[in-house]
Amino acid sequence: MSSPSSLVRIEAQALEALATRLDGTMQPAFERAVELLLGATLADEKGKRGRVVVTGMGKSGIIAQKIAATFSSTGTPALFLHPAEALHGDIGMLAAGDVVLALSASGETEELLRLLVRLKRIGDALISFCCDVKSTLAQASDVALDCSIAEEACNHNLAPTASTTVMLALGDALAMAVAEKRGFTPEEFANLHPGGKLGKKLARVEELMHRGEAVPRVHAETAMRDVIYEMSRKKLGVTTVTGENGTLLGLLSDGDLRRLLEQKGAQTLEMTAADAMNANPVTIAPGDFGATALHTMEERKITSLVVTDPERRVVGILHLHDLWTTELF
């Protein structure tokens, strides 16, 4: 019986061999596949986009589903087409302008071969992942990408293991290459992942900040007693100082007050907000990421950020406590 570590090394060696091919003989085919996928899925002058239709049977089908999900989550529209179901009507999913990505280790999967004519007739291009580039599927493809392996990570060299690992890695490489060519941004990634832990980490400032009546506000001429009352009432440890149309003039924190009391004592209570405020507080835009806000707070050693619009109007306050729900800590 082979040791678990030796089986993992077989898969690692298969991946290393794939990487070597991608740097060498397979590079032109890979680049051609990226061009086909990019050309089909970029919107035309009418805003119409093709999709990546990924298909495969058995274990290859499971990998195909993951690859389709990776494409979709990185801004390239994709779906999984089950070959057997396609033979019974689901071929209707495929439309002109789509690119088909077909996975088959042998390249002779019966259900896929029975679909070949329809796949070639409807879709714009056919890209295949095969371990045998001389197979029927590979030869019928516009681009055939070599997923060959020395052996499966199986005592009997039968169970799809190393071959499916190579297909998965190649699918990830293809999806990432297309996303990079498209100029896929972290902002787009965040918009596609609004839920779960990942969505929380990518939350925008505007989703986390205090807004409206919850934002402490005073005017430049507001007496210090009323400043303290506003800070206490809103319970954020700060208050904004605003001018006409809500324009930010400055910020006053409870730390500022403590330092003033230490320096000036009772005279502090005779001051106005304008006398005591920080006229250059750190601000952030509502569309920035919560992670950006956290980095700014840590770097500046502060617990609150004023959220302002392009006209420097106050639209919210973000407190360090508000970031606890994002699981950034």
Spatial ordering of strands, largest sheet: 2-1-3-4-5
Along the chain, the helix and strand elements come as HHEHEHEHEHEHHHHEHEEHHEHEE
Main sheet properties: 5 strands, parallel
Q: Beta-strand level of the residues, as a percent range?
A: 15-25%
* Relevant CATH superfamily of the largest domain: Glucose-6-phosphate isomerase like protein, domain 1
Going by CATH, the architecture of the largest domain would be 3-Layer(aba) Sandwich
SS content category: alpha/beta
Helix content: 40-55%
Report the uncertain regions: none
**Number of structural domains:** 2
Radius of gyration: 29 Å
The CATH class name of the largest domain reads Alpha Beta
State the main characteristics.
329 residues; Rossmann fold; 45% helix; 5-stranded parallel β-sheet; CBS-domain; 16% strand; 3-stranded mixed β-sheet
Explain what the structure shows.
The chain has 14 helices and eleven strands. The protein is an alpha/beta fold and 329 residues long. The protein has two domains: 4-184, Rossmann fold, CATH 3.40.50.10490; 205-326, CBS-domain (Roll). The longest helix is centred in the middle third of the chain and has 21 residues, at 162-182. The relative contact order is 0.11. The mean pLDDT is 91.
